[in-house]
Design a protein that fits this description.
With about 300 residues, the protein is an alpha+beta fold. The protein folds into 2 domains: about 5-130, Aminotransferase class 4, branched-chain amino acid transferase, N-terminal domain (D-amino Acid Aminotransferase, Chain A, domain 1, 2-Layer Sandwich), CATH 3.30.470.10; about 130-295, Alpha-Beta Barrel (D-amino Acid Aminotransferase, Chain A, domain 2). It is built from 10 helices and 14 strands. The strands form 2 sheets. Strands 7, 8, 9, 10, 11, 12, 13 and 14 form an 8-stranded mixed β-sheet that branches. A hairpin with a 2-residue loop joins strand 9 and strand 10 (about 210-215). The longest helix is centred in the N-terminal third of the chain and has 15 residues, at about 70-85. The chain starts with a strand and ends in an 8-residue tail after the last helix.
């Protein structure tokens, strides 16, 4: 059983232990690129077309060449089949602006790793982190941290790329390390107006009775694919689902708070800034709604 699978856009399965990026790849030098992380379940990438569409939107926000969706579909299909059906996997789509000295790239590199536009693109599948199973089963302890921005910033300063999934993740990882030093598992970012934004790697959803709320994209948050799947399935089941701005205080008064992401899927917040949060009676239903919503995003015939 392989522990990693690496496929370039020409369909070649590469040695995952062999060097791949050039030292002057702009993705490594500046974080100038975009990515998506997708759960592979039963050999199929969950919500793949939604992730591919978001990759394209992020690329457009960075003025990257428009991704060849056919090439990406083919590379992902190969990677998923190589990974197999026995276990879940974490599949990443990575696209960078390419080498700083693109003109010096060899013909071999241009034909395999890079596309005709000299961008760097590949698919990588690896095991799901151990923390994921624990978060699904037990929930997560969370602290709130200020992001230091206004909810108006995304609309007023589009060059800040808020709402795009870029490779510039240093701040997000720093926030998670800070949380770990506070004996917390995760973070919820807040705005200067004390409005709830998102997690470093998740969408925040709160539940009250049969209503689900999440922050709107105009607040500068990344549109969540797992959250979208939940809302679609929950509405079928009679829930009221809204995109609405809400405050940090609403986290405390909510019946439950959830961090939704492509890998963990649904993690209930069991502790918020040291305050214990009990599970509501509907918690198992919300988890089931997420799983059903994700299952709707692929079919056996697709792969």
């Amino acid at each position: 059983m392989v522990d990693r699978v690496l496929v370039t856009l020409d369909g070649t399965v590469q040695d995952p232990d062999a060097p791949l990026l050039s030292a002057d790849d702009i993705g490594a030098l500046r974080g100038d690129g975009v990515f998506e992380t997708i759960l592979v379940r039963e050999g199929k990438p969950c919500a793949f077309e939604l992730h591919l569409a978001r990759l394209r939107r992020s690329a457009q926000a960075l003025d990257l060449p428009d991704p060849d969706l056919g090439q990406w579909r083919s590379a992902v299909e190969i990677a998923a089949k190589e990974w197999g059906i026995e276990r879940e996997g974490q599949l990443r789509l990575v696209l960078t602006r390419g080498r700083e000295s693109a003109a010096a790239a060899s013909p071999v590199t241009s034909g395999a790793l890079s596309g005709p536009d000299d961008s760097t693109a590949y698919v990588l599948v690896s095991p799901v982190a151990e923390r994921v199973g624990k978060a699904r089963a037990e929930g997560v302890s969370v602290i709130t941290l200020p992001r230091g921005i206004s909810v108006e910033l995304a609309q007023n300063a589009p060059w800040l790329l808020m709402g795009a999934k870029t490779l510039s993740y240093a701040v997000n990882m720093s926030a998670l390390r800070f949380a770990a030093r506070q004996n917390a598992d995760d973070v919820i970012f807040t705005s200067t107006e004390h409005r709830v934004l998102e997690g470093p790697r998740s969408t925040v959803v709160i539940q009250r009775d049969k209503q689900l709320l999440t922050a709107p994209a105009r607040s500068g948050v990344l549109p969540g694919i797992t959250q979208r799947a939940l809302f679609a399935e929950a509405e079928r089941a009679g829930w009221d689902c809204k995109y609405r701005s809400f405050f940090t205080a609403d986290l405390i008064t909510a019946e439950s708070v959830w961090l939704l992401s492509s890998m963990t899927l649904a993690a209930r917040v069991n502790s918020l800034d040291g305050l214990r949060m009990s599970a509501p009676d509907c918690a198992p239903e919300i988890v089931e709604l997420v799983n059903r919503g994700i299952a709707r995003t692929w079919s056996t015939a697709d792969w």
